[in-house]
Amino acid sequence: MSEGTVVGRDRYFDTLRTLAILRVVVFHAFPIAALELVFPSMAVMFALGGSLMVKSLDRAEVQAVKNRLRRLLPALWVMALIAVPLMIREGWPDQPSWPYLLLWVFPIADPPSSEFGYPAAGVLWYLVTYLWLVLLSPLLLRLYRRWNLPTVLLPLIGLMLLMAYRDEFNPTIAWVAHNVLMFGSCWVLGFAHREGDLAKLRPATVGGLAAACVGVGLGWAFLHPGEDGVDLTGHPIAYAIFCIGFVLALMRWQPRMDWLARLRPLDGFVSMVNNRAVTIYLWHNVAITVAILLYGPLELWKLPSEGLANAADFAVSIGLIGVAVLALGWVEDLAARRRPRVSPFVRRPAPPQPVAPPPAPAPVAYY
Predict the structure, then answer these.
(1) pLDDT tens digits, 336-353
(2) What does the alpha-carbon distance between residue 328 and residue 342 come to, in Å, rounded to a whole number?
(3) Which of 24, 96, 215, 263: CA 20 to 30 A from 105?
(4) In sequence order, which residues have a C-beta less than 8 Å from that of residue 25 and are 6 or more positions away?
(5) In the chain, what's the furthest Cα-to-Cα distance?
(6) Residue 365 scores a pLDDT above 50
């Protein structure tokens, strides 16, 4: 067990996943473009997924893919059981035919939604992209082990070709391919981490490459501002290069994580977020939307300042996310083949008490 693991888990990975999910929640509550520059959450989560996928593929490829789908899809199915009937009940003018509704069962493309259901469906592109990368992982891993650097660059090259000929593709196919190619290099860098190839590189070399990628991405965005100013995500190729640099640095860095166990509340919070990561991601945007709708009825506008009112509204969002975690988080336990629990917290066993040495035997007298 390495320094960064607790009970078989890599606590550095757990901490990165926690930071990534928190950043997503904060960004959707306060859509400030600079947050994406501080921490590109999606890129980090795909890199973590790629690294963990290698470990599973080495045991059994088909079973590894099945296990990933089993961990991912049940939470989506529960959302579908709630969201689809509500969308139909609220009125769905352009409701698609039932075959398209099957995308809520196996999302090879974004599941359809009405305007009412968009807060739920709008975040599902991540699950679609993750699903495709899981399905492609056996092939990608074989390619990586034969041609490592070309395989890292392959999604980036594919993204360049897609951007050049995007109008030639069906919009739905183009959107799915865009996301898969955008984050495919981050996923493959997860392979490089798990295979130990990044660890073989000198930290200065990785740091230089990471800084160059981040600099190229930022430089392109600043030299080509959009109508609303600098928007890195509006330049897919520049954003992909930026993400590669960020992921390179994070995947090469392996800090000691024994300090986390000493901060019991923080350690428990990191474990909780990881135990309920899918539930938090799926329902956080719904919670934020409901909190906005409650802004008036709760009379938050009466608070002394707009900043305080926004903070209170965000607190309501966090409370609603907590409700979703308590009400639906147990689905993740079933998906992981654990005993379902309402509480997202896992009670850690108390450390074993030291056993006192047996008393020394009394001296024997010889006569």
Answers:
(1) 888 988 888 866 554 444
(2) 8
(3) 24
(4) 280, 284, 288, 317, 321
(5) 106
(6) no
- Residues with Cβ within 8 Å of residue 245, at least 6 apart in sequence: 209, 210, 211, 212, 213, 214, 215, 216, 217
Q: Can you tell me whether residue 6 is helix, strand or coil?
A: strand
Residue 5: its H or E element: strand 5-6
Q: What is the DSSP string of 9-67?
A: EEHHHHHHHHHHHHHHHHHHHS--THHHHH--HHHHHHHHHHHHHHHHHTT-HHHHHHH
Per-range mean pLDDT, top range of 90-94, 149-153, 201-205: 149-153
- Summarised one tens digit per residue, pLDDT across range 12-50 is 999 999 999 999 999 999 988 778 888 999 999 999 999
Q: Judging by beta carbons within 10 Å of its beta carbon (0-12, 13-18, 19+), is residue 159 exposed, middle or buried?
A: buried
Beta strands 5-6; 9-10: pairing state: antiparallel
Cα atoms in the Cβ-side hemisphere of radius 13 Å centred on 334: 11
106, 73 in Cβ contact below 8 A?
Answer: yes
pLDDT the model gives residue 154: 97
Long-range contacts of 249-254 (CB under 8 A, 24+ apart): 249/206, 249/207, 249/210, 250/16, 250/44, 250/47, 251/47, 251/51, 251/189, 251/190, 251/192, 251/193, 251/198, 252/193, 252/198, 252/199, 252/201, 252/203, 252/206, 252/207, 252/210, 254/4, 254/12, 254/199
User: pLDDT at residue 3 above 80?
Assistant: no
